[in-house]
């Protein structure tokens, strides 16, 4: 089955530690995205990538980093520089002109 | 700048009635797509309907339809014969040719039995 897999579903980390969220897709989409969702804020774009080895900052990229070494994979690292990392993170993929973005099930990150 | 605005944080509708959710957007592009997504309590994002900017005809999907006003940069969602399962957060989204997809802040829809 084609789709997007995010792992893990729940993640707990201590303050000051970097943490990497995984996102894999087998839809053969060129573009991939990371969004952060907080109550009342909707989905805010962190980073997106149109092709391998290239990515663009979104509206809230500070404190985050990404890589795109393979078409299928777009991991997100939440660094210790991110001041409020506790949130729900969504990964998506898309091709312009197709049926919009397909989403993973999300990762709930809690930093204590 | 690419922006999406949803001015209704919450709405309620009686079961079997019709409700319209509002969305406005801004872009300097002429070729783009617009979408409405539904997010139920499971938090899974579900595509409801999409509209291609170069098509004048409004998109419809069963009980869901849009009113696309390109000049006004307006893209509202109409849900007919509302059902209890329609209760969810609804997000409007815009995708430019550079693949960037921006979402609005969402509208929480309550269905009253």
Write the layout of secondary structure elements.
The complex is a heterodimer of chains A (112) and B (113).
Chain A: E1 4-7, E2 10-13, E3 19-25, E4 31-38, E5 42-49, E6 56-57, E7 64-66, E8 76-78, E9 87-94, E10 102-103, E11 107-111
Parallel strand pairs in A: 2-11
Antiparallel strand pairs in A: 1-3, 3-8, 4-5, 4-9, 5-6, 7-8, 9-10, 9-11
Chain B: E1 3-5, E2 10-14, E3 19-21, E4 24-26, E5 32-39, E6 46-52, E7 60-61, E8 64-69, E9 74-79, E10 88-96, E11 101-103, E12 107-112
Parallel strand pairs in B: 2-12
Antiparallel strand pairs in B: 1-4, 3-9, 5-6, 5-10, 7-8, 8-9, 10-11, 10-12
Explain this structure.
The complex is a heterodimer of chains A (112) and B (113). Chain A is mainly β and 112 residues long. Chain A is built from no helices and eleven strands. In chain A, the strands form two sheets. In chain A, strands 2, 4, 5, 6, 9, 10 and 11 form a seven-stranded mixed β-sheet that branches. In chain A, strands 1-3-8-7 form a four-stranded antiparallel β-sheet, with no helix packed on it. The radius of gyration of chain A is 13 Å and the shape is globular. The model of chain A has no long low-confidence stretch (mean pLDDT 93). Chain B is mainly beta and 113 residues long. In chain B, the strands form three sheets. In chain B, strands 2, 5, 6, 10, 11 and 12 form a six-stranded mixed β-sheet that branches. In chain B, strands 3-9-8-7 form a four-stranded antiparallel β-sheet, with no helix packed on it. In chain B, strands 1-4 form a two-stranded antiparallel ribbon. At the A-B interface, strand 4, strand 5, strand 9 and strand 10 of A face strand 5, strand 10 and strand 11 of B.
């Amino acid at each position: 089955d084609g789709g997007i897999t995010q792992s893990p579903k729940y993640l707990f980390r201590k303050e000051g530690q970097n943490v990497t969220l995984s996102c894999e897709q087998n839809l053969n989409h060129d573009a991939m995205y990371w969004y952060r969702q907080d109550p009342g804020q909707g989905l805010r774009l962190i980073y997106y990538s149109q092709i391998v080895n290239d990515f663009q900052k979104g509206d809230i990229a500070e404190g985050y980093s990404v890589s795109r070494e393979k078409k299928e994979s777009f991991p997100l690292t939440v660094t210790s520089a991110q001041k409020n990392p506790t949130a729900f993170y969504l990964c998506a993929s898309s091709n312009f002109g197709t049926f919009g973005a397909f989403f993973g099930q999300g990762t709930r990150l809690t930093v204590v | 700048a690419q922006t999406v605005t949803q001015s209704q944080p919450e709405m309620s509708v009686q079961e079997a009635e019709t409700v319209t959710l509002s969305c406005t957007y801004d872009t300097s592009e002429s070729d783009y797509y617009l979408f409405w997504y539904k997010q139920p309590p499971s938090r899974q994002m579900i595509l409801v309907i999409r509209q291609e900017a170069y098509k004048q005809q409004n998109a419809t999907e069963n009980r869901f339809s849009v009113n696309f006003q390109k000049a006004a940069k307006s893209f509202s969602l109409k849900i007919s014969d509302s059902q209890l399962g329609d209760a969810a957060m609804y997000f409007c989204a815009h995708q430019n040719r550079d693949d960037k997809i921006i979402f609005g802040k969402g509208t929480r829809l309550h269905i009253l039995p």
